[in-house]
Amino acid sequence: MIKFLPMTANGISEKLASVRERIAHAAARAERDPSDVMLIAVTKTQPVETIREAIAAGLTTLGENRVQEWESKRADFSGDPVRCHLIGHLQSNKARKAAAIFDRVDSLDSVPLAQKLDAAAAEEGKRLAVLIEVHLSDEQSKSGVAEGDLDSLTNAVRGFTNLKLEGLMTVPPYFENLEQVRPYFRRLRELRERLRARTGLPLPVLSMGMSHDFEVAIEEGATEVRLGSALFGQRPKKA
Fold first, then answer.
1. Which domains does the chain have, with CATH numbers?
2. What is the CA radius of gyration of the chain?
3. pTM for the full predicted model
4. Which of 225, 130, 152 is nearest to 185 (CA)?
């Protein structure tokens, strides 16, 4: 069974205040405006009650890893001003449901998946925002398009009427020494700049940085950071 660690609204508010202070300091070091960095609360495995407390604390953009988990939760927040992004790997057989229930898919990594999302978005009568996830490491467990295939995937996405490409996302390797992760964030920023120059697309979003490394990501240009444990504490543990 799963045992959820308790979290109070005050606890989340305190953690959120601390995170925002850290975001502000990181932005200042890069001579950036902290308001240019959006915080995505990673709510995977979190119960509805904890997510509701987070919303009360001021968090309104959520990130979920699995289609079925958000599908089971979303009705509880139908009256709340929240947006939810799919930040985990998306299997093509779940593209139709993802297009229906998420405000943005942040893990687009192939032309076939783009085709399915475009068709599903058309059925929903919506233009679905997407990010291309780029795989910049040698880790076989990580998803994302290879750097060498980024141009061809970008070209394909531009041709789909019902997809709106907003930027890039990456999940770098975990390093205790944060300077070791910096080159991955810098590389994603460079790839975004190259795509901007080649395509003329604004590509405003660089989604990179999680609880242990988000400050370095901000220093390297992140416009969105995806935080779970920094906001909610330890994830639920198996009892």
1. 2-238 (3.20.20.10)
2. 17
3. 0.92
4. 225
